[in-house]
Design goal:
about 190 residues, alpha+beta, hypothetical protein PF0899 fold, four-stranded mixed beta sheet, 4 helices, 4 strands, about 70% helix
Length: about 190
């Protein structure tokens, strides 16, 4: 073999090897690109899922906050209405005709009496609960009726307070209305958080 043929053979083998190396490199690059594309697609899917979940959670949080705010506003409105209603009730009780007022107070007093020998304290301006009224209530109480009208008066806003020693039963109109109002507010709070 001549030197030219040897050189040609080496060049031919080198070219064949270069083509094979280039083809292997391209195949490897294509395989890696396919793998990278697959990973990128998977990352995009995961990112999309995470973004969707985050958006759903944010939406749920916003809706829950909005519902809570609406419920608070509704509760505030109901409280305002309750205040108005109880103010009207207080005024209506104060302006009841004497006979009706005495009937209401007599029922309250009979139900509030424990021993029957309590002292009855009334408001400074009370004219309808007097000795005659106390005598009528004592008659309703029967043998248990030994109530006495106190000479002490207090600024209680209507109604009465029964006292016996250190024990007091406050049946004043403001206290009774406040208790009824608290009971209703408790019901409203249950509605808010149910």
């Amino acid at each position: 073999m001549e030197a030219e043929q040897v050189v040609a053979k080496i060049l031919s083998d080198a070219q064949a090897e270069a083509v094979k190396i280039r083809r292997d490199a391209e195949e490897k690059e294509n395989a890696e690109q396919t793998q990278l594309d697959s990973q990128l697609e998977e990352y995009q899917k995961q990112t999309g899922k995470l973004a969707k979940r985050a958006a759903e959670e944010k939406r749920a949080h916003i809706l829950a906050a909005a519902r809570m705010e609406i419920a608070k506003e509704l509760l505030a409105e109901k409280r305002k209405l309750l205040d108005e209603v109880f103010d009207k009730v207080r005024k209506q009780i104060a302006s009841l005709p004497d006979n009706e007022y005495r009937q209401v107070m007599a029922k309250l007093m009979v139900s509030a009496v424990e021993t029957g020998d309590e002292e009855v304290i009334v408001d400074n301006n009370e004219k309808r609960i007097n000795e005659d009224f106390i005598n009528e209530v004592n008659q309703q109480l029967g043998g248990k009726g030994h109530l006495k009208l106190s000479s002490r008066k207090q600024n209680i806003g209507g109604g009465f307070i029964l006292t016996r020693g250190k024990i007091k039963t406050n049946a004043s109109i403001p206290v009774l209305l406040e208790q009824a109002k608290k009971d209703l507010e408790t019901e409203l709070a249950k509605e808010l958080f149910s």
